[in-house]
Amino acid sequence: MQGHMLAAEDMTNFGTDPWWLIGLKAVFCFAFLMGTVLISIVFERKVLGWMQRRIGPNRHGPWGLLQSLADGVKLMLKEDIIVKGADKVVYVLAPIIGTIPAFMAIAVIPFGPPGNEVSIFGTRTAMQLTDLPVAVLYILATSSIAAYGVVLAGWSSKSTYPLLGGVRATAQIISYEVAMGLSFAAVFLYSGSMSTSAIVDSQEDRWFAILLPVSFLIYLVSMVGEAHRAPFDMPESEGDLVGGFNTEYSSIKFALFMLTEYVHMVTVSALAVTLFLGGWRAPAPISTYWEGANHGWWPMLWFVLKLCMLLFAFIWLRATLPRVRYDQFMKLGWKVLIPVAMVWLMLVAGVRAMRNEDYSFADIIYWVGGAGIALLLISFLVDIFRERGEKAAEEREKQAEPPGFDPMAGGYPVPPLPGQTLPPTPRRRPRGEPQLVGTAAESGSAAASGEPGESNAGSTSQGRGADGA
């Protein structure tokens, strides 16, 4: 198995193509992304319409298939506006910085076997532009550079809401790339390589989505957050940011940001297919009964079908789930995904170390299961003590008197917080009614204390009432 992986990681299959074939492959990668984006936009609108019982686009082209192309032409013909107070150089460069890295990741995605499987104009070549011994790290680096375009767009606009959207996007990418990298580490341990072609080759017997289900689920959540897609589209939430970092952009620059989002969605889906779903390999029933399923041009078909399945999952999430709050999103990333990914990585590393030491399968299950049960017991005890501490704190808060609340303490009225009450306010007397000296309670207390002024006022009012009767 180790020799098989080393042979698959051999980079001699790449870098030997003639210059015209390299250019043709680069053009194909660019056209593949652009075509997939155009189809995805129409596909998304159609599927959302079907799920929400709407018609969807049906005007431009047959069945509305040219709707996204018409939108692109419309955006390019619109007036290009630059905000007066913006940093013009950074303002113009921001969408370019965000778009170019989104296209770069597709260069190391394998569409077919690494060997010279297909013939293009008489030249045998692999269905992959290039490969690197650290190809997955290259993809992570390019996706990180794309964050600069978003934050620079928000900063250069010199506007409050775009800046907030850019800061949100940066924190979002940083938070979820940690969990994404930890999910990749488990794949590296089992494949023994960071090369994309070697990782696909190591899934010949079993996909990593089945062998490493926790890593697969963590990556699925992380890739939705990385792509800024619903329900994790906080950088462009219309309710509180009025569109987010691209509020001040128009025309082709706005179109570039929209294009970047969909290209990034395709890229992370292609990476999920490569690392966890067998890449270009046919599913098990087809590859079992058909020997030629993984040869020739057929692998590209399996790759595209898996890619479409993940793109449909993106659309399904958007039609189903509401947008979460930003604090919930950060809590999910830092308090759930990252701890679970670290514990899972420790278990995977332990299993790999025991396999290398020739431990039996029963011993591995015994030790790993024992470690898992111990972690569950420890977490259970921690939860019990934490709940007791929270209940004790609540009891102390209930027993303590609530502090006085002055709504005018800061110079202007503010609403009370939970647990605070406004002080009683005097009633406004109805218009035309004579002003009384005091309330009934005050009159009664004054009479009881023997104050002559108040008691005389009370007796006078009582006398008037008697005369009237």
Automatic annotation (TrEMBL):
GO terms for molecular function: NADH dehydrogenase (quinone) (non-electrogenic) activity. InterPro entries: NADH_UbQ_OxRdtase_su1/FPO (IPR001694), NADH_UbQ_OxRdtase_su1_CS (IPR018086). It is a multi-pass membrane protein. Residues 393-469 are annotated as: Disordered. Its EC number is 7.1.1.-. It comes from the Bacteria. Residues 433-459 have a biased composition (Low complexity). The chain crosses the membrane at residues 20-43, 89-112, 132-155, 176-200, 206-225, 262-280, 300-320, 332-352, 364-385. Keywords: Cell membrane, Membrane, NAD, Oxidoreductase, Quinone, Translocase, Transmembrane, Transmembrane helix, Ubiquinone. Residues 413-425 have a biased composition (Pro residues). NCBIfam families: PRK06076.1-2 (NF004741), PRK06076.1-4 (NF004743). HAMAP family: NDH1_NuoH. Belongs to the complex I subunit 1 family. NDH-1 shuttles electrons from NADH, via FMN and iron-sulfur (Fe-S) centers, to quinones in the respiratory chain. The immediate electron acceptor for the enzyme in this species is believed to be ubiquinone. Couples the redox reaction to proton translocation (for every two electrons transferred, four hydrogen ions are translocated across the cytoplasmic membrane), and thus conserves the redox energy in a proton gradient. This subunit may bind ubiquinone. This is NADH-quinone oxidoreductase subunit H. It comes from Streptomyces gossypii. The lineage of its organism: Bacteria, Bacillati, Actinomycetota, Actinomycetes, Kitasatosporales.
